[in-house]
Write a structure and sequence with these properties.
Blueprint lengths: L1 H17 L11 H90 L3 H10 L3
């Protein structure tokens, strides 16, 4: 058992010496550096182009918002005009009805007074007016 432990400890201590870790360095050349710089420049150009396009889209949305505001203001004006017209028409109709019925009411009152006056001398007419609820 002790022999197995010693072998195990021996292997653990000297295992890194038995295994060759091959580390191959990859040379970093000037071409690689230039390639990275060109890639960064292309990425920056793409970012600038995207920002320009987003600004254009933002301007379009702002102009559309202004158009919607103008449209809503126009619709409110149309609603106001329509409401004013309807109120005017109904007001005129009620005023005209009241104005046109006033002479008829006066004539009706005159007719009632004449019938009541005549019913004093005609008992049959007085009975008819009583049945109708006018006396």
């Amino acid at each position: 058992m002790k022999a197995i432990q010693r072998i195990f400890v021996f292997l653990l201590l000297f295992l890194p010496l038995f295994i060759k870790a091959e580390t191959k360095e990859i040379p970093f050349t000037l071409d690689d550096r230039d390639r990275i710089i060109r890639t960064e420049q292309k990425v920056e150009a793409i970012k600038a182009e995207m920002n320009a396009r987003f600004e254009g889209v933002d301007k379009r949305f702002e102009s559309i918002d202004k158009r919607f505001d103008q449209l809503f203001n126009f619709l409110w004006a149309i609603i106001g005009i329509f409401t004013t017209m309807m109120v005017s028409v109904f007001g005129f109709a009620f005023w005209d009805r009241k104005l046109s019925l006033a002479p008829l009411k006066r004539e009706d009152e005159k007719l009632k007074s004449v019938l009541m006056e005549y019913s004093r001398f005609q008992p049959k007419l007085a009975e008819i007016l009583r049945n109708a609820g006018m006396l």
